[in-house]
């Protein structure tokens, strides 16, 4: 299968679903990671242009740990708008390029505007990517992708419909997250959060709920036209 994970910023995917992606990659599936935004504003001291390059390299190094392709749509942080047709078409073209059977993205009620906008744009794109008269540089997709929402930070307002046991891949998840060194500093300074400890603790919490050591939680977007019988092939 082709799996497309779309996060607002570099490190969002690693925080919420990298264990599952590592597990899927080990099982032989093709993984594409897409970051909508450059992450250019997530630091107190590093200027935006310099930070963009740092975060781009961090994302590539994280993706390389599981042999995934890494894309960026190059929006500035705080500049992505869901009800803008140009933005929508960029997401449509990205979905068509990746040809995903399964798409993973932010939940519609996530904690900050970029995440919410990405969730809405992915929902839009996974449907309209199948319409041939919606013209982009890539051919129309053959089928509407199955759509899954990854966990919110700390799980607030998120009621999982299923869990993935990532115990055997949790070390890879943490290694991927640790490639985002600029954000380990930023999250400590801005939010007073040790994000590695945060993710580890939360992974254990979801693991308790799922009956394993570490787990990641998801909600499947169940609506008509989606392949609702599809489950993560892990």
TrEMBL record:
It is an enzyme of class 3 (hydrolase). It holds the Pfam family PIG-L. Keywords: Hydrolase. GO terms for molecular function: hydrolase activity. Its EC number is 3.5.1.-. The keyword Hydrolase applies. This is N-acetyl-alpha-D-glucosaminyl L-malate deacetylase 1. InterPro entries: GlcNAc_PI_deacetylase-related (IPR003737).
């Amino acid at each position: 299968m082709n799996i497309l994970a779309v996060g607002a910023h570099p490190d969002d995917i690693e925080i919420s679903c990298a264990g599952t992606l590592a597990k899927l990659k080990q099982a032989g599936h093709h993984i594409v990671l897409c970051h909508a935004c450059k992450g250019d504003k997530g630091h107190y001291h590093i200027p935006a242009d310099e930070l963009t390059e740092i975060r781009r390299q961090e994302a590539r190094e994280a993706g390389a740990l599981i042999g995934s392709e890494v894309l960026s749509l190059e929006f500035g942080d705080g500049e992505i708008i869901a009800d803008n047709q140009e933005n929508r078409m960029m997401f449509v073209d990205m979905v068509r390029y990746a040809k995903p059977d399964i798409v993973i993205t932010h939940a519609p009620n996530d904690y900050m505007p970029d995440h919410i906008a990405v969730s809405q744009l992915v929902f839009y794109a996974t449907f309209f990517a199948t319409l041939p008269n919606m013209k982009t540089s890539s051919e129309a997709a053959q089928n509407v992708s199955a759509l899954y929402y990854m966990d919110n930070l700390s799980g607030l307002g998120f009621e999982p419909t299923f869990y993935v046991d990532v115990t055997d891949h949790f070390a890879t998840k943490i290694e991927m997250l640790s490639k985002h060194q600029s954000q380990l500093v930023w999250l400590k300074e801005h939010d007073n959060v040790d994000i590695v400890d945060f993710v580890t603790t939360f992974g254990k919490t979801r693991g308790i709920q799922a009956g394993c050591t570490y787990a990641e939680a998801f909600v499947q977007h169940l609506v008509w036209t989606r392949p609702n019988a599809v489950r993560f092939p892990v």
